[in-house]
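Quick entry between incubations.
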Amino acid sequence: MDNAAIAKGIREAAKKLLGEGKVDVVIGYAKGTVPMRDYPYFAYTPEEAENLTWSGFCCNNLALYAIRRPGRMAVVAQGCVSRNLVGLVNENQVKRENLYVIGVNSPGMVDRRKVQALFPGQTITEVEEVGDELIVKGVGFAEKVARKKVMRQNCYTCVQRNPVISDELIGGEGPASHGGNLDKVAAPWEKLGSSERWAEFQESFKDCIRCYACRDACPLCYCHVCFVDESQPQWCGKTQDEADVATFHLLRAFHCAGRCTDCGACESACPAGIKMRRLTMKIEKDIRDLYGYQPGMAIGAQPPMTLFKPNDPQDFIK
Amino acid sequence: MFARRRFAVLKNLLEYAGLEPGRLHFSWISSAEAQKFQQTVTEVTEAVKALGPATRMIKDIRKVA
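Done. Structure below.
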């Protein structure tokens, strides 16, 4: 099923749910005002549901808006969003009975930076999706680009494109993965020596302006007061010094340990194009290797950081 | 026991990001194990001395202010 047909299905489902009063709000995506940036949209009435859409540019993670939200809601969920919803149910931040999941198979979202990089210095005014190709239009040009070439890396290595939980599945199930091997790319610095790792780490995060967009876009970050905003005590300095930036990114990644579903919302939200998944992917790889756990795959699963086994690895303790 | 899992992940993360191996140590010592405490502290200080002064994750106030 193509995206236009799925979008129609989502709109119909949303109108039905809102019309029957089954939910107070349908959280989905609407077409952005600039190309390749479809944004989260809250439909409270059947009329507003007309604005809902579905495309390869739905990069935000909608599970974020379900956190501690009062009332009943429906959420449009592809694989990663549904995994985060499962995680939130398991962490008691969302009640399953208040949640209606409109499941969709993810086509693999497009990295707008990769598309822009193919047209340096040119303004893209419209991007159309036709099957496995994108038609990129701008002033005086219209070119075809293979979708696979511009897909987000996390979508390429995704293993769960179908929703884990769904009350209604629009468009049916599709392939579960794109064929990328996550373990091959999960820890790109592992083969380097310590000094090169540090250099790579500094290089990757040098553009950070500490805007916290990665944190705000992340469906795992729901503390009432984040550790970076606390001033008594101040855990993390506020400057753009490399030590403060490194502290923020290491701790942000560590807080996601055993919970991150690799949805890529942080990287898509970053205004500086920082690849913070280089840290979170490494942690999730460790969690898989050490404790055999994948976050968000089953309701009722215990997060690995809240458990222990007597025979957990402990070679590092003297 | 919970801490063991968290430290395992944290240590891997810090060394993955380029903290020198040997700068971060973990040990379980009971309050009744004075000798083990003494030995561990000696080992840690020797390991850190061998690495020299830390250059990573250091905030130089003169540079920031």
